[in-house]
UniProtKB/TrEMBL annotation:
Pfam families: LplA-B_cat (PF21948). This is BPL/LPL catalytic domain-containing protein. The lineage of its organism: Bacteria, Pseudomonadati, Pseudomonadota, Gammaproteobacteria, Oceanospirillales. Coiled coil: none annotated. It comes from Marinobacterium aestuarii. It comes from the Bacteria. Residues 33-239 form the BPL/LPL catalytic domain.
């Protein structure tokens, strides 16, 4: 996958609004035919990113004010899924590419993101696989999981490729995203997420025991772990 100007392993910590904006800009360039694919890695200031559907909860505004006061601003994204806590010790990975809408295309698109990451982790002695983990944050069928615990969450967004590019009728631009738990105090993330659910009077809860970070899987390798991980994941997705 070709490198793009934003694709660098030395990305600074971004605001969630800026990170999401740059992801959508990458997708739009593929939609418009300005590039066929691209990769964008970034880190995020502490926040809670939620799908727009949660805005309809009766307690949403009150919960957002409460979380802002606790240092966890709530940011709304346009895609689906569920609440995702963010912090600088997590790595966000977005790839964009063209994909025909054929049977099995959604699975294939997830694997286009997940398989290189799985192979990269395997080179470190980490055996990861895709699976659902009920009780984990923003659960889905294509979490990256290690021994039953969630290491990364994934999501997708599809948009029709612009007609002026000469694309086939069933050709779409896909943005596939992963957030990897790298080197962060995970307990604070899950506490913030559960505080939001409680403030919204929602029954959902994140189970801290169902998650694992790279720092935990690679004890003794935490010095520059985020930087090395950014470089490793960037390289594996461009090969």
């Amino acid at each position: 996958m070709p490198a793009t100007p934003e694709n660098t392993a030395t990305q600074p910590v971004l605001s969630p609004e800026e990170g999401l904006k740059q992801e959508l800009a990458l997708l739009e360039r593929v939609v418009q035919g300005q590039q066929s694919s691209g990769v964008f890695l970034w880190r995020c200031e502490p926040c809670l990113v939620v799908p727009r559907s949660l805005c309809r909860r009766p307690g949403f505004d009150q919960a957002s004010v409460a979380m802002q006061a606790q240092g966890w601003p709530v940011v709304v994204r346009d895609t689906g899924g569920d609440l995702t806590p963010q912090a600088p010790g997590l790595i966000n990975i977005a790839i964009a590419f063209r994909q025909r809408r054929t049977p099995g295309a959604i699975r294939d698109s997830y694997l286009r993101l997940c398989q290189p990451l799985i192979e990269s982790l395997a080179s470190l002695g980490i055996e990861a696989y895709c699976a659902s983990v009920e009780g984990a944050f923003c659960n889905g069928d294509y979490n990256l999981v290690v021994e039953g615990r969630k290491l990364a969450g994934t999501a997708q967004r599809w948009r029709k490729v612009a007609s002026h590019t000469g694309a086939a009728a069933d050709e779409f631009a896909v943005l596939a995203h992963a957030v990897i738990l790298c080197d962060e105090s995970l307990g604070a993330l899950w506490a913030a997420g559960n505080n939001f659910y409680q403030a919204c009077d929602m029954p959902d809860r994140i189970d801290p025991a169902l998650h694992v970070s790279l720092a935990e899987l690679l004890p003794g390798s935490t010095e520059n772990l985020i930087q090395h991980s950014l470089q490793r994941f960037s390289a594996c997705l461009q090969s």
